[in-house]
Write the structure tokens for this entry.
Amino acid sequence: MGDEKTISLSVLGGGGEIGANCYQLGINGHGILLDSGTHPKKEGLGALPEYGILGKAPDVCLISHGHQDHCGSLPYLLRQFPAVRTFATIPTARIMDRMLHNSVAVMGLIAKERGVAEYPLYEHEDVNYAMRSVTGRPFNEPFPLPIEAEVEVSFLRAGHVLGGASVLIKTRGHNVLYTGDFCEVDQELLPGCETLGRDLHVDTLVIEATHGATDETAINPYAEECYRLGEAITPVLNNGGAVLLPSFALGRTQEVLNIVSRLQEEGMIPPVPVYASGLGRAVYELYDRFTDYLRDDADLRPLEQFHRIGNVWESAVVENLISKPCIIVATSGMMLRNTPSAMIAREMVRHTHHGIFFLGYLDPDTPGHALLHGRVGDRHFLALGKPGMECRLANIRRFSFSAHAHRKTLQQRIREIAPKNVVFVHGDADAIAWMRDNTNNDFRCFSPHIGQTISLEA
Ligand SMILES: [Zn+2]
Ligand SMILES: [Zn+2]
């Protein structure tokens, strides 16, 4: 049992895209799912992984971390296949609970506003059921899977966000390492990923390729970027303006609130009030609960230090908020329509003295991308069912606080782990193409597309 050298890998989502990550390993007749995400830009059933290609119920699902593109469809999966057992790190299990209940609310709103008949894809009770299927595990403590074949799993520290893990799956015949999203550098709060090498005896490495198409010299070092951000914020505040920092609820929000707070303590930016939006606050409580998972020297500020934003769907509330110098950290990071960051930006762009500073990658199809690359005088549609807003604001910039590995790190990790097979996932087509073209021929390289099943030899 568990000693076969050949395994299969099926891509249900995340092949050639940053989408609904979901991969099934076929090991000795057992199905082991890696992640069960939703596509951040798609809607309705189209946002799901291709669960239809599963011939039978998978046995287990291993979740790498709490971002939607990795766990957003877990309640849907469990509704289809109620017997699936799920494993995640202890913080990720708690994070998922908050993120997924929030998704139900968001899907409900979209259903109402736009009549997406398939929404919500799952209800609060489905989230509760899914959460009961999850066993939380600490990092670096191998555990056997509850299946007949002998398979042992370990969660390894991946950096990226609280609880973020790379997943090591060991059988007697074939070892697989799924990196999930990982980050090699220390962030303000989270330590970078652990170094992994040949001693893991990895046969197949399934590796994220987010930054495959990004020249690493174009990404400033983290510490430098903190100060660049400070230098951009100060003149806006001194000029009576407000600063908006659109951020992902999990990870970036907690990191940037603490960066801003430190820069204020250091006297680099004025001590104006700092605001944080709802889901980011809920996740912040978990950063506070799991301080053991943060950097040893992390100085996590108390959440009470950051003010609540209030009802951003009322323009009078936002007008009042931005009438005085302040810093606002709000979701979503790419400023999707009708999210707090979009609703606040909608009022800000009518004036010339504010600043909107994006903090990471912006997908070309998002309103945030259009705003960043647009010109003064362009009209932007940031709220559903409301007229577009003419942009008078020129001070819209982007900083790069990436929580993903640079492509040189991806290459280095492949060399150090020295697997037999490398499978590139979680990247746009050009990112994956660059990684394939620039990976040594010593490794068998794969870049399967969605719906494809490949066979892998140890
Ligand atoms: Zn992620
Ligand atoms: Zn991801």
